[in-house]
Design goal:
Length: about 190
């Protein structure tokens, strides 16, 4: 996996967190820089930790399923991407009036937006991809987009949220197709 693919994957994984951050900025009404940094840090840390956990789990399983690992990576990315697209298309009740910066709410949001990164970590293990650079990129890009999302959420939150999830889902499905095609053509 080259640097461009890692950056594209990182943006794809960050779309859920970005969408939640925009919504959170909208809910907070007058978010401050410290609110943006707090949410960005929390989302970035969880997006960095989940691929590591997935990679560790996948590494222990890779010897068992080596012959079908590319199908598993494709299926995981396809399901996650499809879920993101579905969530972006379906009319949702995302206007939650709870405080997204409450500790437990922030932890719940951080875990929920990083589950897809866990599956990507499993895929990395199956494909024998070095995890260090992707983890740094995923965490950094998620941090930056999430912090930015909080700040723009007040003015533009209602316009972008669903479209961002659809875009992220398309990116993840595209990467899954690329992985499958590379293995089937080799």
């Amino acid at each position: 996996m080259n640097l461009v693919e890692i950056v594209i994957l990182s943006f794809g994984l960050a779309m859920d967190a970005f969408a939640v951050s925009i919504t959170s900025g909208f809910i907070l009404k007058r978010p401050k820089i410290r609110h943006a940094l707090k949410m960005g840090f929390s989302f970035g840390i969880f997006q960095s930790l989940m691929p590591i956990l997935g990679w560790c789990a996948g590494t222990s399983l890779s010897a068992i399923i080596r012959n079908v690992d590319h199908w598993i990576a494709f299926a995981l990315l396809f399901v996650i991407g499809g879920k993101m697209i579905y969530e972006g298309i379906k009319p949702g009740a995302e206007n939650d009036n709870s405080n997204p910066l409450d500790f437990w709410m922030l932890m719940t949001l951080s875990v929920a937006t990083s589950i897809d990164a866990l599956a990507v970590g499993i895929s990395f293990a199956f494909l024998k991809i070095n995890i260090i650079l992707p983890v740094i990129m995923i965490g950094s890009i998620t941090f930056a987009l999430s912090a930015f999302g909080v700040l723009i959420g007040r003015k533009f939150g209602h316009l972008f949220e669903d479209k961002i999830k659809i875009f992220g889902g398309v990116i993840l499905i595209g990467i899954g197709i690329k992985i499958l095609a590379e293995h089937l053509l080799n």
